[in-house]
Amino acid sequence: FLNLNKNNVENIKFKGRGCAISLASTSILTEFIKGKSLNEIKEMSSEDLFNLIGVQISPSRIRCALLGFSALKLGVNNYLNGK
Fold first, then answer.
1. CA 47, CA 16: separation in Å to the nearest integer?
2. pLDDT of amino acid 16
3. pLDDT per position in the chain (83 positions), as tens?
4. What b/e string do you get for 42-60 counting C-beta neighbours within 10 Å, with b at 16 or more?
5. Closest CA to 14 of 3, 4, 24, 1
6. How far apart are CA 24 and CA 55, in angstroms?
7. Residue/partner pairs of 76-81 with CB below 8 Å, 24 or more apart
8. HSE of 79, CA atoms in CB hemisphere, 13 A
9. By the 8 A CB rule, do 65 and 50 touch?
C-alpha cells in the first residue's frame, strides 16, 4: 500500500505471508523507498535490491527475494501508465 504526495512515496506498508527471505527483502525495500519518487522506483533494478539486502542470495532463493520488488515495480508501472 502506497501513500503518495506528488508522485513521491510518503508512506508504504505491505501485507504478506511467505518465507523469511521474501518478507525481509520486502521490508528492507519499503524502508528504502520512503520519500523516493515513482520515477526513481521505476528505474531501480534487481541488482539495486540485492545491494540493499547486503547478503548473498542463493540462486534457488532469488525469486523469494524479488517477490515484493516485482509487485512494487508492476504497481508503479501500472499507475504511471494509467492502468
1. 23
2. 87
3. 899 999 999 999 999 899 999 999 999 999 999 999 999 999 999 999 999 999 999 999 999 999 999 999 999 999 999 86
4. eebeeeebbeeeeeebeee
5. 1
6. 12
7. 76/38, 76/41, 76/42, 77/42, 79/38, 80/38, 80/39, 80/42
8. 19
9. yes
Contact 33, 41 (CB under 8 A): yes
pTM of the model: 0.88
Cα distance between residue 22 and residue 73, in whole Å: 15
Q: Which three cell numbers, joined as nine digits, stand for 80? A: 504511471
pLDDT score, position 48: 95
Residue given cell 512494487 in the structure block: 72
